């Protein structure tokens, strides 16, 4: 993946960093844990200014999050609830959806900020925020805070590691894989429970 990330950053500069981070929100396999340290390393060589890189990356994070928030808002809670009532919709049940909504209503701010600093979840969290119709200004502010912190850390690490910037992936990749497994297991559990409840004739 670095074979094409390198040219994008070198050719487009901070704009390329912003575009790549935007795409990472929509296509999680594009890892910001690779993009940001590389950008930090390039800043150390004098090719780009670190503050401009950070601003571009944070703007890309926010734009990508807003696009997914808009998708979640378009789906809406009522529509998703109707889908959850269908037997073929295995992602969640109405009861699980209601519990998730109550949890998000109580702790949504913390969930958004923390999730922005967790691999995989940082891309997915915008959807439930949109479904729950978290106030847009609040969502944008929390997303900027969480994403800005994440971006600053990884750009700084790339600056400090210099030629060894790629070592960041050695430590962050297992976390991304573990989170993907956790999410997969959780979805499988919810789907299995819904199928069992249907087979028993329960709601």
TrEMBL record:
Alphabetized UniProt keyword annotations: Cell membrane, Membrane, Transmembrane, Transmembrane helix
Compartment list: Cell membrane
Family annotation (Pfam families): VTT_dom (PF09335)
Membrane topology value: Multi-pass membrane protein
InterPro entries recorded: DedA_domain (IPR051311), VTT_dom (IPR032816)
Domain VTT residue range list: 30-159
Residue ranges of the TM segments: 51-77, 139-162, 174-192
Similarity comment: Belongs to the DedA family.
Protein name: VTT domain-containing protein
Species the sequence originates in: Actinoallomurus oryzae
